[in-house]
Amino acid sequence: MDADVVIAGAGPTGAMLACELRLAGVDVMVVDQLAERTGESRAGGMHARTLEVLDQRGILDRFLEVGELQPVGHFSGLVLDFDGFESRHPHPLMLLQSAFERLLDEWAEELGVRVRWSAEVSGISQDRDGVTVELRTAETESATLRARYIVGCDGGRSTVRKLADIPFPGTPATMTAMLGDVEFTALPEEYIPMRRCPGGHFSVIAFEPGWYRVFTSEYDYVADPNEPATFEQLRESLVRLAGTDWGMHSPRWVSRFGDAARQASRYREGRVLLAGDAAHIHYPAGGQGLNIGVQDAVNLGWKLASVVHGQAPESLLDSYHTERHPVAERVLHNTRAQAALARPGPQTDALRDVFSSLIAFDEVNRYLASMVTALDIRYPVDCDHPLAGRRVPDADLKTPDGATRVYELLHAARPVLLDLRGSAEVAAAVEGWADRVDLVEAQSDDDSWPVPGVGEIPAPAALLLRPDGHVAWAAAVGGVPDTSALRASLAAWFGPALRHG
Questions:
Q1: What are the residues facing 404 on neighbouring strands?
Q2: Domain 3-170+262-343: assigned CATH number
Q3: How far is Cα 325 from Cα 27, in angstroms, rounded to an integer?
Q4: Cut 0.70: pTM above it
Q5: By the 8 A CB rule, do 7 and 31 touch?
Q6: Residue closest to 37 by CA, chosen among 123, 93, 110, 103
Q7: Where is the signal peptide (predicted)?
Q8: For residue 152, what are the β-bridge partners?
Q9: Which of 44, 73, 372 is nearest to 180 (CA)?
Q10: Cβ contact 287:45 at 8 Å
């Protein structure tokens, strides 16, 4: 084998997945058709759940030092307030994708991730033992890699998805949007939020001193997706919408896209898996695209590593589709709604007025903000505790070794059985999984924990945490913990117990 896992695509999703696999000791090779990083800014920020994921790995400070926290977000240009959210990191972090990729590259290098540039996947064949990946490379006309699995993180036009013959159903584009990083000579203000016009809408945002991001959307016109986007097209689009280009010049990058929304019918075909834009595309309303891709990677990484190491059966990989497909389905749904809510016309004007009044209600604001930030995700698990399936709150803890936080226990990307009541039954239940699951005895500083969408709940007696920070099993305070259910959960997520003697 040339690698345990080949990842096609070195963007945010592929890079994050590679790091997750390396944390688990998996030999991974990333291949990308580009010759190097382009430096294109692309996505512009991260929401709360992605910031929490980076905190769980102990690398969040690297991103906070470079990005800028924002007080509010939006739903189709209507302001969402994130104050008071049940998270240590409730506010969006403005950080360009190019900077995000640079920081991930540094972490990947520290972890020993191998990256092969100028290598485009051109063929895939599977057998019972692995997958053979054919590449077109700059050095030779073709090359091959042999691996246990391949993950397509190669974008909306994914070659891996097409080679695996995975359908990509959805809705076609109904409008054309353009994005560019430019300079201005006569812009009257530093920030123009989404401004609706008879033909669409536009916005201008100052990302860094001296240059701006211009975003235009024109409805009922669909450009040829194969035609290269140009600066002149962006300038003309802004003039049509705003009536001026404010002396726009010196473009760094220009791109074009639409509101097509498509999703892979399945995220796994044997030894081929999909993540990020290869699995789902949508209109980039609310800045959810980069975030959902990173969260795909964190959900898949520990499962794939467990299967590669022979600790869990291949069927564990099916839970990746079961859990993440509905998440993307909901993102496609809400971005379709946001695109419709931005459409020009008096009917939509009235709808936006009503919607704006509704968002003023705290319950509506929190519902939409929880959805956009992905803080309210709950995966299906066989446990009825209110925390089961949800991301774990980052509670303050006291351990025999000193004060810590729940997320600090997840830095190694290993499962954690957190015993908050010193239960001998809980400690005994995990003995058969001691090679895979870390037992931590601690005390919570708080009697209650906040849960998005639920409110305050009593601090649990014990928790089984997956490496992605979601709760696989939990026990309430009072009574005897159901250790048979705990053992069943340990076996379901982390494979059979070791037999001694």
A1: 397
A2: 3.50.50.60
A3: 26
A4: yes
A5: yes
A6: 103
A7: none
A8: 8, 274
A9: 44
A10: yes
211 versus 394: which is more confidently predicted?
394
d(Cα 52, Cα 407) in Å, to the nearest integer? 8
Taking the C-alpha atoms of residue 254 and residue 205, their distance in angstroms, rounded to an integer, is 15
Residues contacting residue 196 through CB under 8 Å, at least 6 positions apart:
77, 342, 344, 349
The whole-angstrom separation of Cα 492 and Cα 433 is 12
Q: What is each CA distance from 477 to 452, 459, 462, 494, in whole angstroms?
A: 20, 7, 8, 25
Strands (E), 26-82: 28-31, 45-46, 68-69, 72-75, 78-81
Terminal C-alpha separation, the chain: 33
240 and 214 Cβ atoms separated by less than 8 Å: no
**Could you report the per-residue pLDDT of 219-259, keeping only the tens digit for each?**
988 998 888 999 999 999 999 999 999 999 999 999 999 99
Domain positions in the chain are 3-170+262-343, 175-258, 396-494
Q: Which two tokens stand for residue 180?
A: 């560019």
- Say whether pLDDT at 396 is over 80: yes
Tell me, which fold does domain 175-258 have in CATH? Alpha-Beta Plaits (3.30.70)
Fold classification of 396-494 (topology level)? Glutaredoxin (3.40.30)
On the question of pLDDT at 139 being above 80, the answer is no
CA 212 from centre of chain: 25
How far apart CA 387 and CA 381 sit, in angstroms, is 10
Residue 315: φ, ψ to 5°? -60, -20
Tell me how far apart the alpha carbons of residues 255 and 241 are, in angstroms, rounded to a whole number: 17
Contact 433, 420 (CB under 8 A): no
Euclidean distance between CA atoms 494 and 306, whole angstroms: 7
Residues in contact with 370: Cβ distance below 8 Å, sequence separation at least 6, in sequence order: 85, 376, 452, 453
- Rounded to an integer, what distance in angstroms lies between the CA atom of residue 121 and that of residue 136? 6
Q: What Cα–Cα distance (Å) separates residue 5 from each residue in 10, 19, 131, 316?
A: 14, 12, 9, 16
Q: Is 440 left (phi over 0), alpha (psi -120 to 50) or beta?
A: beta
Residue 15 · residue 40 · CB < 8 Å: no
175-258 matches 3-170+262-343 in CATH topology: no
DSSP β-ladder status, 3-8 and 28-31: parallel
| 17-38 confidence digits (pLDDT tens) | 999 999 999 999 999 999 889 8
Neighbours of 325 (CB within 10 A): 17
* H or E element, residue 106: helix 97-111
